[in-house]
Amino acid sequence: RMDEDMVKLIDSVKENGVLMPALVRPDKNGGYEMVSGHRRKFALEQNGITEIDAIVRELDDDQATIIMVDSNIQREHILPTERGFAYRMKLEAMKRQGKRTDLTFGQVGQKSEPINSLKTLSNDIGESIKQIQRYIRLTYLVKDLRDMVDGIQEDGFTIALNPAYELSFLQIKEQNELVEVIKETLATPSLAQAQELKRKSQSEELSKDMMMDMLLADKPNQKEKITLKMEEINK
Fold first, then answer.
1. What's the pLDDT tens digit per position in 61-104?
2. CA–CA separation, 77 vs 88, rounded Å?
3. pTM given for the model
4. pLDDT tens, residue by residue, 126-154
5. Cα dihedral sign for 184, 162, 148, 81?
6. Interhelix angle 191-202/172-185, nearest 10 degrees
């Protein structure tokens, strides 16, 4: 994304160049596939530079995925759904390997005893297992809802992480209907409403009309509050 961080990186590359090489692996067509360094490469291109220093490593898909995620997840600003896709990709790669996968460039190919992949991922990134699962569930939302979670939806609608987690259990058709209802009512579900939508969906009772009624209802935290002094009330 051409965000503030990218602008800073472009300026830094213009002044100092790229201080850390990219990581690439040979591809089947005789070229190279970039594993980490995509942002540095983009910053170089914006400065008219067509070459980048790179380390070449033989990596299988799972090793490349894990390294790619690890190199990007440390960025200061990362969208919630980006984090969800990153966690999901790494977890799936770890499950396929069934072995320790916190690999550094010098440890590629290292093997050890099978472990619990989710617990290992939790230890690696310093997030609770429950929080990792919440983020991964965001990847099951349709794009419009994901954009609302990320705060980049064109109409400015936003949905917090906990309600979004509940909404991820809705069927795709129901999610698309919910997007329409949100735009029609100019309201997004609270956590309690999202939980109710999930229950209705799982019992196969959910309809678009029901969503409409729910979002049009007053939420306790959205009711206007008026403060009056006692002398005013006495009058």
1. 999 999 988 888 777 678 999 999 999 999 999 888 875 444 44
2. 18
3. 0.72
4. 889 999 999 999 999 999 999 999 998 77
5. negative
6. 140
Burial of 31 (0-12, 13-18, 19+ CB in 10 A): exposed
Per DSSP, the residues of 73-133 read: TT-S---HHHHHHHHHHHHHHHHHHTS-----GGGTT-------HHHHHHHHHT--HHHHH
| Total residues found in the chain within this entry | 235
Angle between helices 191-202 and 208-216 (to 10 degrees): 160
pLDDT band at 111 (very low <50, low <70, confident <90, very high): very low
Using CA atoms, how far apart are residues 10 and 40, in angstroms rounded to an integer? 8
Average pLDDT on 26-37 reads 93
Distances (CA, A) of 127 to 36, 131, 140, 222: 22, 6, 20, 32
